[in-house]
Amino acid sequence: MLIQRPPDLKSSEITDEKAYFSRRQFLRGAALVTTSLGTAWVYRQFTSTGGVSKAGEKIAGVVAPAQPPAPGPAEALTSLQDVTHYNNFYEFSTDKRQVAPRASHFVSSPWTVEVGGLAHKPRTFDLDDLRRLSPPEERIYRHRCVEGWSMVIPWIGFPLSRVLDQVQPMGSARYVAFETLADPGQMPNIRSSVLEWPYVEGLRLDEARHPLTLLASGLYGATLPPQNGAPLRLVVPWKYGFKGIKSIIRIHLVETLPRTTWNRSAPGEYGFYSNVNPQVDHPRWSQRMEQRIGESSQRETLMFNGYADQVAGLYAGMDLKANF
Amino acid sequence: MRDIRFLKQLVLVNGLVPLALLALDGYRHNLGANPHEFATRATGVLALLFLLLSLAVTPVRKLLGQPWLAPLRRLTGLLGFFYGGLHLLTYVWFDKAFRIGAITADVARRPFIMVGMTSFLLLVPLALSSNVRVIRWLGGRRWNRLHRLAYLTAAGGAMHYYLLVKADTRVPLAFAGVLAVLLGYRALNRFLPRYTERKPARAPGKPAGAVGP
């Protein structure tokens, strides 16, 4: 027997066909909009630029160097925004755009640098000691990264030789070894094993004493922002950027070739010298051209980054392909 | 809601959202200090991402027993091809300024460029044979065999990325790891489908894949 119950719904309650479809259209539209916003949000998480970081303190009493080795007139300064928001500083992040935001709380004062090793008068300097040592000079240098991009940066600093003279290197000293602070509390990426920490670099003593070699404490007239290596970094304008070690805590005079971080990471790709050389390619990419930040087309890379007149003599008779 | 037509629209629109934002950022000079590098990186990662998504469609539909999801494979694969083409264009345009000599020298001498270029070229026949008429003309078996190239292109893309980075290989390795899982599923599925597939649940009286509200 078929028991028929009255239907729960009266036919008058059935949603009108037009209303039903417009409801469906509405739901679809809502789904499109909300998922698109979600996708946009995810995309933004990976591509945020990190905004604008706060400027350093103005450095007083900056003097012009006696013989400014400035780039040619056709080379404009790279903007402060680009210089301070496109940084390789792996202790903070391997993403060049993320270094500035992640380094924004870095404390670089008080700070001391221990200068010693094979020196007659080893000494620990604080920032005031260094300020008294030599007046700050403005040096406008080209900066060429091994990755194939470049900038023109107005650094503030003084020749590293002034510090080396203070500690009086012994006759046996042939190289200078540098070390960056490695503070996992302040440098979030140190917990990763991307590179070996602390970051170390080195120069031959004659390279370190060359008048172009700068111990920089500022750029664009103000103290270095953390992402650029506050409070003290090395600038060696004829070498690839990674030789310019940042946030230095130790400078040691040594007898044998010092270890360098990138050389240990990939010995076949990053040599001890790492002089800018358009004729010696990186094993994985050409070094013939460079993307100058802020320019639309590429430039040809210059031998010794355009400082051949000043530094080529340091390498007279050396095979620069073998000593890359 | 088994509405594949709408789902395809949804995926397509979402797939083009990154391109719209990239174009907007470019227009507003908001791509950072090195816009060329940024555009190349972004399109490259998106290409790899969509290729992996395309390879994920089959495992997902089999694991969930939802055969109606199959058309998403073609759409995501085509999005991967599209972003791969943009990626190649940014390299040829921004990095090499359309200098054919510099490009051929690069391809010949740099393994990571060669691997990337080969992977993209292998995608071309896949994209060309994604049209229904071409599929019919080829026949299912030959089409299937041809489209096994998808595994090779995705592996080549992940390798291209790995060879490019200086030291931080975590992201490229993550892509390679996901790819390994997706390929591992296929190996498992071949021998132990009992564990890797779910029978599609069919509503009585409704043909498989029917469109319901």
Helix content class of chain A: 10-25%
Q: Output the helix-strand order of chain A.
A: HHHEEHEEHEEHEEEEHEEH
Rounded to an integer in angstroms, the radius of gyration calculated over CA atoms of chain A is 28 Å
Shape of chain B: globular
Alpha-beta content class of chain B: mainly alpha
Descriptors for this entry?
heterodimer; A: 324 residues; alpha+beta; Sulfite Oxidase, Chain A, domain 2; 7-stranded mixed beta sheet; 5-stranded mixed beta sheet; 8 helices; B: 213 residues; mainly alpha; 10 helices; globular
Commentary on this structure:
The complex is a heterodimer of chains A (324) and B (213). Chain A has 324 residues and is of the alpha+beta class. Chain A contains eight helices and twelve strands. The N and C termini of chain A lie far apart (97 Å). In chain A, a hairpin with a 5-residue loop joins strand 1 and strand 2. Chain A has a domain at 68-143 and 154-272: Alpha-Beta Complex (Sulfite Oxidase, Chain A, domain 2), CATH 3.90.420.10. The relative contact order of chain A is 0.15. The mean pLDDT of chain A is 91. Chain B is mainly alpha-helical and 213 residues long. Chain B has one domain (4-196). Chain B contains ten helices and no strands. Chain B has helices at residues 4-27, 35-64, 71-95, 100-109, 111-128, 132-138, 140-146, 149-164, 170-191, 193-196. The longest helix of chain B is centred in the first third of the chain and has 30 residues, at 35-64. The A-B interface holds A 24, 28, 31-32, 35-36, 39-40, 43-44, 47, 49, 78, 81-82, 85-86, 90, 94, 96-97, 147, 149, 192, 194-195, 265-266, 281, 284-286, 291, 293-294, 297-298 and B 6, 9-10, 13-14, 17-18, 21, 25, 30, 32-34, 36-38, 42, 95, 97, 106, 109-112, 163-164, 166-168, 170, 213.
